[in-house]
Amino acid sequence: MVAGEEVTIFVDGRRVTARAGEPVAAALYAAGIRTTRFSRRRGEARGPFCMVGRCTECVMTVDGVENVRTCTTPVRDGMRVETPGGRRHGPSGA
Ligand code: FES
């Protein structure tokens, strides 16, 4: 796999085209997916904020590993990204 090569990742089972090596959160944003998790108390949609690994708003389950900061995790072909708690994105990515 070459950096920048077009690859496919799966976000809650949805196929998303991305570029190898780019941050997962950037690939999600490019695909129109803005929600990475839901708040525990109110169930509000949350999304990437700092994009440098500080705020934890972007944490998702990646290849079965929970609480992965997607803003600092590079895309790899075939990666499986899931919204924590089993909630799924609608067709709009919201
Ligand atoms: S967006 Fe803040 S840690 Fe990822």
How would you characterize the overall build of this protein?
- The protein has 94 residues and is mainly beta.
- The protein is 7% helix and 30% strand.
- It contains one helix and seven strands.
- The chain has one helix spanning 24-30; strands at residues 6-11, 14-19, 37-38, 45-46, 59-62, 65-69, 80-82.
- The strands form two sheets. The chain has a five-stranded mixed beta sheet, with helices on one face.
- It is globular.
- It binds FE2/S2 (inorganic) cluster (FES).
- Residues 48-51, 53-58, 69, 71 line the site of FE2/S2 (inorganic) cluster.
- FE2/S2 (inorganic) cluster (FES) binds next to loops.
| Overall helicity | under 10%
3D shape: globular
What is the succession of H and E elements? EEHEEEEE
Number of helical regions: 1
Strand % is 25-35%
CA radius of gyration: 12 Å
Notable traits:
30% strand, binds FE2/S2 (inorganic) cluster, single chain, 7% helix, two-stranded antiparallel ribbon, 94 residues
Write a brief caption for the model.
The chain has 1 helix and 7 strands, in the order E-E-H-E-E-E-E-E.
Helix-strand blueprint:
Blueprint: E1 6-11, E2 14-19, H1 24-30, E3 37-38, E4 45-46, E5 59-62, E6 65-69, E7 80-82
Parallel strand pairs: 1-7
Antiparallel strand pairs: 1-2, 3-4, 5-6, 5-7
The structure holds FE2/S2 (inorganic) cluster.
The site of FE2/S2 (inorganic) cluster has 12 residues, from loops.
